[in-house]
Amino acid sequence: MVGRWCQMVVVAGMAALGCLSVAAHAAPSLPSEAQCSDETAKNERLYGIPARLLNSISVVESGRYDRDNKATLAWPWTVTSQGEGKYFPSKAEAIAEVRRLQSKGVKSIDVGCMQINLMYHPDAFASLDEAFDPVNNVGYAARFLKGLFGATDDWVTAASYYHSQTPHLAAAYRARLMKVWDGSGTQVAAYTPPKALPSLKTGKGPMPVPSSSARVDEQRRAWRQQQAAVQDEARLIAAAYRQARLGEYQLRRARMVELRKARGLSPDGY
Question: Which residues, 6 or more positions from 72, have their beta carbon under 8 angstroms from its beta carbon?
Answer without folding.
Answer: 59, 63, 64, 65, 66, 186, 187, 188
